[in-house]
Amino acid sequence: MRNLVLSVIGDDRPGLVSALADAVAGNGGNWERSQLAQLAGKFAGIVAVAVPAEHADGLIAAVTGLDGLLEVAVHAGGEPPRDGKRTALTIDVLGNDRPGIVQELSTALSLHDVSIEKLTTRTREAPMAGGMLFEATLDVLVPSGTDLAAVRADVERIAAELLVDLEFGGE
Asked: Which intervals hold domain ACT (predicted)?
C-alpha cells in the first residue's frame, strides 16, 4: 500500500467531495482521514488516502485530472515521528482579534517542543462590545517530561498581553 496526502482547493460548490471521493474509490483507494472546509468562498482541505501500489499512478492521474473542479497536489505520505511519549492537550483561546495571535501562540508552544496536531480558528463579531473576537482551538502534543506549568505560564503571558481568555483541557 502507498500512503498519499492530497491537498485540495477549488471554488466552493456542490459535488466537490463526491468528485474527489469517486476518483479515490474508482482507483482502489481508501479515504482514511481528512480536514475539509469552506473558507472565504473556497473549498480547501487535506485528505490522507491509502492505495495499492499498482493503482497509485491511476489514482494520482484521476485526482489531478479534476481540472475545473479542484486543484489537487499529491504528496507522499509517511509515518508520524515516534520520538517518545507525548501527552495530548487542548488549548482554547478567545479574545479580541488582532494580527499576530497565531504567530505568538505557536512560537510559545514551539519553544517547549509542543507539536500542534490540529488548529481551528475563526473570527466573529463581539456581541456587546463591538469589534471582532478571535477564537482558536489547538490540539497539541506535549513531550514527556515537559513542565506543563511552564507551557501554561508562557501561553498565559501571551494571552494576558493579547487580552485573550485561555482554557487548557486534558491536563
From this structure: 90-169
What is the reported pTM? 0.75
Domains and CATH numbers, the chain: 2-76 (3.30.70.260), 86-169 (3.30.70.260)
**pLDDT of 35 above 80:** yes
The mean predicted confidence, pLDDT, of the chain is 89
